[in-house]
Amino acid sequence: MREPEEELQGPAERERLERELSAPLEAWAQRERAAAKDAEKAATAADAELARQVFEGLSHRPRGHPLRRYGFVAAVIAAGLLVWLGFGRPAEETAGPKVFLGSGEGRLRRPVGEVLGYDEFQWDASGEDIYALRIWSGDDLKPTVAVDALLTNSYLPTPAELELLGEEIRWEVHVLDDADRFLRILGSAEARLRSR
Amino acid sequence: MIRKARHAEDLRLVKRVLRRDREAVAAFSERLSCVPAYLRSLAARTGLGISAPALDDVAQETFLAIWRKLDTFRGTSRLETWACGFCFHELRHWRDRHLRVESRRGELEESPSVAAVAPDDTGELVDRALARLGPPAEDVIRLKHFEELSFQDVGERLQVSPNTAKSLYYRGLARLREWLGDRGEELAG
After folding, report:
1. Between β-strands A154-155 and A121-124, what pairing exists: parallel, antiparallel or unpaired?
2. Residues facing residue A132 across a β-bridge
3. Model's pTM, two decimal places?
4. Which of B126, B62, B127 is nearest to B94 (CA)?
5. What is the ipTM of this complex?
6. Which residues contact A74 (CB under 8 A, 6 or more apart)?
7. Residue B17 and residue A59: Cβ atoms within 8 Å?
8. How many helices (H) and strands (E) does chain B have?
9. Cβ contact, residue pair B29, A51, below 8 Å
């Protein structure tokens, strides 16, 4: 007997599955959302107190695992030592795209230069900033992909977005304030697909 | 292609919480007081015999899970809906631990079957099928439909790639269709 997943070869079959199950799944989701709404009214003073105690306690803890902080400090010391010992000479310039670092507080990591794909956009950043990603394809004046309010320093484009991106792209990461207003450009880079 | 947060106010609140703004933390806690109430409702509907102190423990575990994933909140659903999405996982986690203990005592009962549900109760039917499916496909389908998350967001929440989330989703749907059988087709109209 064939496993059900073996039948999932093509988009047509996937579409059929979604179509057949969308009504019961939507009915289930609506029931759960209604139950969640009811829970807002049913919450007691004790529930509120429990939430307050837990979140107040958590908000006073430092973010991230303490060992990660020590790891970061160790990495900084090691890098400093390497520079001091003369191993920190900058790598030779290689032909590639210019990377504009904006205010210099961050660096765009990937995709930069010739790449196999645009599967992930990643940048270095410190602090707890909020970012916006803008990607221009070819010579387009308007961004082909624009994503706001990113709280992490990476973005995985959806298949639909990937389809819109051409051979060559330019991308920027902007830092936003709490109200999603533009503060500064973190960096700008270009990338192109490697021809096979 | 512009992706905008549909619940921008909630997203702003979460950003302030991430910056440890005290007022924001207080408002956030108040909003999430629905979590223990939702857990009670879930436990009651699934016939889970769980004591009040044990439910408080599950609520605390859920709050902790929410806190750890706070930077993945994108405002695509309401803050309360997003938070309640964590409840399925945490309650199941408790049930699994509890059942392991019970099974060691030889008291494990069979899980309720899909066939035993009243024909007009679609939500219950799907809920039981999802419970039977189990993680990780169960989590993917619940998050995708309850919170209406994209595969990218589901992947981020479950710490798997979007492609893995997608693959789990369709495999899960295939299983659900198999179990729901004719009843699923009837329900789909």
Report:
1. antiparallel
2. A174
3. 0.59
4. B62
5. 0.80
6. none
7. yes
8. 9, 1
9. yes
